[in-house]
Amino acid sequence: MDFTRREFLKICAGSAVALGISQILIPEVVEALERAAAGNPPVIWLEGSGCTGCSVSLLNTSHPKISELLLKIISLKVHPTLMSASGDRVILSMEKIAEEAKGKFILIVEGSIPIAENGMYATLGEKNGKPVSLLEWTKKLGRNAKYVIAVGTCASYGGVPAGAPNPTGAKGVGEILGRKVINVPGCPPHPDWMVGTLVHLILYGLPKLDENRRPTLFYRFLLHDNCPNYSFYIHQKFAKNLSEEGCMVKLGCKGPLTYSDCPLRRWHNGVNWCIGASAPCIGCVQMEFPDGMSPFYGWPERKR
Question: What is the pTM assigned to this prediction?
Answer without folding.
Answer: 0.86
